[in-house]
Amino acid sequence: MSAVSEIHLAVALDGAGGHPVAWREPGARPAALFTARYWAGVVAEAEAGLLDFVTFDDALALQSASPGAQDARTDLVRGRLDAVLTAARVAPLTGRIGLVPGVTTTHTEPFHVSKAVATLDHVSRGRAGLDIQVSGIPYEERHFGRRPVPLQEDELHEEAADHVEAVRRLWDSWEDDAEIRDVATGRFVDRGKLHHIDFEGQHFSVRGPSITPRPPQGQPVVTARATDSAAYGLIARAADIGFLPSRDTAGTRAAVTAVRGLRESAGPGGAGARPLHLFGELTVFLDEDAAAAADRLGRLDELAGDPYEGGGAPVFTGTPARLADLLQEHREAGLSGFRLRPGVIAHDLPAITRTLVPELRRRGLFRREYEADTLRGLLGLDRPASRYAASALRAS
User: Fold this and answer.
1) CA 313 to each of CA 36, 213, 225, 338: distance values in angstroms, whole numbers, following the listed order
2) pLDDT per residue as tens digits for the range 140-158
3) CA–CA separation, 39 vs 32, rounded Å?
4) Does the reported pTM lie above 0.70?
């Protein structure tokens, strides 16, 4: 990492923005929301601001204003492109920014997720991540019918942690030099350097090895979000980055202390040995005048018919300078970065890259150039060795 204690910044991308009627704002381009050109453009904007990474929201059911059922509204954005496939399409068009798609582990298999994200890491040359999501929503469960009874919240997080452990082992199942590719001898791969992972967890049994060679990062970056304390254990056990709602400094400090305590209790031989970044999370509406930002949110809320509550993240309205103050305050509570959710991508993403970033840079808190080619490098995380290569050395 840089000698200066800089702030890491990411943005969460979803449709036209966090606000449900963002698509009706000037410049929102609703006709382009399901095109590769749209996503390439917004990620290029984030990369121009030298942000660490973008996350792509995803889900396995249509968006709904009702928490427990599908609604019948037709005035809000409905539908998404697949997050992993979108990231893979954007990857060749970008050069340095990290690409972190969301995946709902509740209804997906670790083997499929591991090879998809490993492929993204190869396509992006080491800039992939995996944003772990869980779902206990009944109407999502009915798409799959895998269980007679949906899991409870604590079981969802336990299953997700098992899922990540299986994925991580599959990423390690090829040693770095397993590919020989020697035309003269006719040897493409060293079969002794591909390993069965023989993972037996409470929720998954996975033999392995993967069918995809080890990712360029070794281990792509894993992220997870906590809207409340229920997900702290998942972050502590499974993640490289945890997203925590940044409501106030006291609450942030308490959340950081709780998550780090759980991480340390994992012990030096497991998750406790891995570095952990904790990012604050905010939905932002930025304008040069604070009143204008508040008025814009009010106008959007009037169109939606309900006040916007941020989708689990606190809502900030105000100027870039005031947001920079807030990020500094919350960083002192133990955060190393922030994931910002633009309220309206067309307006608030450029406000982040073109006004907030220069303000942070002026304070010596943000990079002036990309200092690494991989996402792990940008985050100051070492590239880990394959656990199975180490085991093979000990056995020899």
Assistant:
1) 27, 37, 10, 11
2) 777 787 776 677 888 999 9
3) 9
4) yes
